[in-house]
């Protein structure tokens, strides 16, 4: 198999393994075909007003300032006098779409829903808005359309502002909320002149939805501890006060309006969200008005493990925490609308100002709605299973379900309402457990298939590596018996899946290991041959020790995902490598440079995460240091190799570093002053994004000069995305990579060894042609080289970020390019920033390949093998129970490792272009390489 074929196969296999966790652990529990249920009791309210303060953290809302005063005095007064309050616990992913779906539909979308477009993918399930008679909503164009387009009929009306109003560039984001408040004011004023609208507004079961995005925008731009974030909370507090008075006046204080204020998600200290940190999953919930219980004063706020009540000075008021999905049934009950058919929320009865009898009746209806989903889900699983193998949920068989409902009605009929409430809660809890049981019904079967696929792929690439480096030719005849066995096995798997009416993805997960193990076992002869060769040459101990050290290093990398400091320990271990490699006599300067650079890079995993505190001074200083280093490199290169002409490409690159530093400073100052992103800075930044990757292609093909050009060019681009010490980190990493290249050059055993500057990147396409005559057989040292590459890749990725989550990377780092909210553009730019260190490491790895003459295909296979070893680790560590921080972290770990494997395949191809291709369009002054003076 050629290398390009192997890369394509690897991409397909890893995409399947990557996507598998969403079928194994996070499939959507969405079902259709249910009957809706609503309470038969008179509703306590005719209308409901929902305020969603996007990105509002619970602690920032409830806590008092240093002066003992609240930043939201009106809402604080409601909490202490006439409302109910608590903490709404959200789930991962803590993003806008899933959060609003949970709030308004009572339903938790699967994790993959975060990747869906918002306007283009309206909700395809029931919601509070859909069950209302009319809903009017104002706010973000990224939220409102998905509910209006997903609703049945024409009764959900939206009014959105322009995308361009959402700007992270320092403009006052309270204007987003002011726009909403002004629109609502004008709406009610206009209704007095519109008879049809006036009639609609005086009907029951209507909802007003005010989506307030300002807090989230200010959180991204200025962080949750900034004055701008707190000022926006004050602005929302005042706006809520004005809106309540406006609505009460409009309806002549009829006491038929209920109010709910909450948030879709919180925000980390560094201004991001998406994972499971408590700052992201804890949001406020305040309800007041018609049908809502007033404040209950008591000695403690309730039985909670945290100290929030004391910290927030609310310990004297009863606190009622809810799951985010519980808010949907609360809203529908208040206005008498049917519960959303897909809701998994339990009615938070302690928020309601109703009798025990009414609570029991409401919970009974809630249970019926849940059981309707349970029945549909159970029938779906039953129909897709072989009858003799179907295992029903024992705690909620049809008989037990009937008896539970009958017992509940009997309790209510006999006036035992307190006991009926307990039984209703228990029935709902059991139903949710039953839904989860059928949701995870096929998990063991699918998990075993995925693990078998992982192991089959690893076995396949191992035998490919051994086959590539076999010293003898083994004639492999087609083993008809073995092939027949795997064909029969594949047919059996196919028949079982067809009988069960399994989804098409199940065919991929189950047939993949059959194909891979068939291919892997065909190379068993090569494995046996190499084991015999190793035994004959008496290198079993040496090989075993090398494998053990590499496995230990990989285990450190796995543990480093949980304890970031362990990466520093790994770097210290790498610094000691020359002292244990006694067979090579390294240059003393190289050893000192290697050790110093390893220890220098080891400092960064111990520093605070980038994003928590930006520092423009550090950015400017790092840019100046990079500029001076560029000057030194050009001078040193000119002097050492006696250049006849100046290398203008390197000069242009270090000048661009200085220019990028100036642009970052100007942009930061402009945004801080409230003027936003200057147009000329934005144009320069986008031009840099186009120019920098092309500049190395104008330099010479010598390993040293081309890699220097790659490093300086991407340093300039990276500088535009720095907000604190990242520039120093990348500079230190480049220093480490340079000495790695020198050490590998000194340790190589090639005859007629050239000086480093005379070694050229050849123009052979290593993706297509891999059987180069200049390449040698595999050595034990190649295991170390592959491990160093993987370790440096992860250092490059996480040296400045949080190992636990991708959301640790601060969106403020792309302010030089864009400040207006464009999620896909911003995500792409963030990805480019994270990939720049990886790309440079891969280019240097290409240099190591050229210097040591190691076969590229074999080195690539070793890298894949080690990465898949880590990927399998994290597959077993995925959680869907426990705290949302643990769940989110486990997902992030697996996604990061599998994404890295996929990107590494692409990076190998890109590094080929950056290191070997040369533009000849322009007449760039070139020079011959003179003999070194050293």
Under the CATH scheme, which architecture of one domain would be assigned?
3-Layer(aba) Sandwich
**Poorly predicted residue ranges:** 767-774, 922-934
State the fourth-level CATH superfamily of one domain: Alkaline Phosphatase, subunit A
- What is the molecular shape? globular
Topology, number of strands:
8
Mean pLDDT: 87
Q: Approximately what portion of the residues adopt beta-strand conformation?
A: 5-15%
Task: Kindly report how far apart the N and C termini lie.
Answer: 44 Å
> Largest sheet, described in full?
8 strands, mixed
Task: Walk across the major sheet and give the strand order.
Answer: 4-3-5-1-6-7-2-8
**Assembly annotation:** single chain
Q: Classify the fold: give the CATH topology of one domain.
A: Alkaline Phosphatase, subunit A
CATH class call of one domain: Alpha Beta
- Taking all Cα atoms into account, the compactness measure Rg is 32 Å
Put simply, the count of helices is 33
Helix residue percentage:
55-70%
Structural class: mainly alpha
Describe this structure in words.
Helix 6 links the parallel strand 3 and strand 4. The chain has 33 helices and eight strands. An eight-stranded mixed beta sheet has the order 4-3-5-1-6-7-2-8, with helices on both faces. Keywords: Endoplasmic reticulum, Glycoprotein, GPI-anchor biosynthesis, Membrane, Transferase, Transmembrane, Transmembrane helix. Its EC number is 2.-.-.-.
